[in-house]
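Can you give me the bound-state structure? Components:
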Amino acid sequence: MRDPKWLKWVRIIGLGLLGLFTVTPIYVMITSSIKPLKDVQGDFHWIPTTITFSAFHDMWSTVPLAHYFVNSLIVSTIASVVSVVVAIFAAYAVSRFRFAGRRAFSITVLSTQMFPGILFLLPLFLIYVNLGSAIGVDLYASRTGLIITYLTFSLPFSIWMLVGYFDSIPVALDEAAKVDGSGPIGALIRVVIPAATPGIIAVLIYAFMSAWGEVLFASVMTDEASRTLAVGLQGYATQNNVYWNQIMAASLVVSIPVVAGFLLLQRYLVQGLTAGAVK
Amino acid sequence: MVVSATSRPGRGRGSGDPGRPPPPSRGGRGRVTAWLPVRLRRLGLPYLLILPALLLELLVHLIPMLIGIGMSFIKLTQFYIRNWSAAPSAGWSNYHLAVDFNGPVGRSLLHSFFVTVGFTLLTVALSWFFGMAGAVLMQGEFRGRGFLRALFLVPYALPVYAGVITWSFLLQRDSGLVNHVLVDQLHLFGDKPFWLIGQNSFASIVVVSLWRWWPFAFLVLMAGLQNIPRDLYEASAIDGAGWMRQLRSVTLPMLRPVNQVLVLVLFLWTFNDFNTPYVLFGKTAPQEADLISIHIYQSSFVTWNFGTGSAMSVLLLLFLLLVTAVYLLITSRRRSDA
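Here's the bound-state model for the whole set.
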């Protein structure tokens, strides 16, 4: 494609504005986290006049941030790993087998994306309370309940994306594995999963991110012991004082794992989308 | 593309799927009986594979949804929360309350609905436009391309509470960046306006939402652009098509299937979005930015009237189903015409 000359300027201005819009809040988050409290409570200044790292020290004691951090880490890790395993099996069935109800299954799973969270929040809360006391496992206000909830949130997207990805892997490869004596599961493990690794990584990032960032269910389904970062971070504002510098420092710290992971692995997400979903 | 379950009836015994009732035959009892259990097992395999996903969806989405519909027909107030099976039937009264637009409950629901429609249309249109502009301008090679791409994706990667809480700091009246730039530096307003309460809160929620969602549109459209064959651009260039012409006649038509899904997904996610307004405004949103999910949350959990809240959720779901069906009907027909 030959680019006309004016395009260069449109590109510079367009991308520049998008970049400015994107980066401003991130800049404020970083610079405010190294300001002392009185500087974030008074008039705003672009350049910090006094630099202090006290917010990064104080934020751990203002709210039990480390506790929330561990909760988020446990919940998001288990939820995303289990969700990906479940999605791989389901996507393999949809991609490689013709069975009665295949289309109904796909449509049902995808349509759950449309449900307003608020519609099943309260029923789920009641189910967890009652089922939990019936089987003796704490589901309400526990990490287990939150894990089960979150792993279904990423399932529809994961299955949809993996079906597209599996479809792009030639069935001849499966057949070759079966000639070597593998059953369908053997073919899945030895051929399809290795060939679909970028797609699987993409789905894993997506599942982790969605569990790490969820707010609505976390705000209703947790207590002090099982509280995750999504709710815990609001603790800085309910104190007598709003510790904006600590909020910014905490936001920065809790974002680093997901943003770093996402940026390192984003090419798999683009590859995964290119191979499967957007075709 | 799909392997028929019966294509290789004799083999496949190595696969592990325990728990199928008919045990694999040890052979020697005649061909038909030896073959049947394996065939049954192979037929059952896809169901076994989707079973975990199906059970989880049933537990977390489908059964709660049915219970939610049931709850919309009972008087579920705080007196019956502990023992909700004893709550008296309400008939259609929860629905009557929700759609009685002369009553205070119905009127505020309708208001919230219109606010949400406006918010969603603006956010989706702008997110798509920003994402499209970003993706198209990123085509081709130039210095810093990889860096910019990563930078644009950061708002999407940031946990929603971290990004949105930063915006609520930016939008503070006295100590925020927005008023500093608009009032102190550009002198656009005489007095510092409020951004998180009153009239301006609608603009605030649109901007914050746009900031969060356009990178997703950008990501999907970028992936979509990579799937357009290079030769289409070369062929159209030989035919004398300029840059604008190529955008109109190659890029946009080729992206149509991607756009169909992208716009729908953005619409549903924005319409149902709870996280952004909840972190930005807290439990009670200002009138002007009273989005429907917050409104229903408020009606259920703050006033403890879960029956009416459920009725509102069911109405919301019906609306979304209707919009999705009409949307898919229209866009699919256009697609098959093209």
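A couple of observations. DSSP finds 14 helices and no strands in chain A. The first helix of chain A runs from residue 5 to 33.
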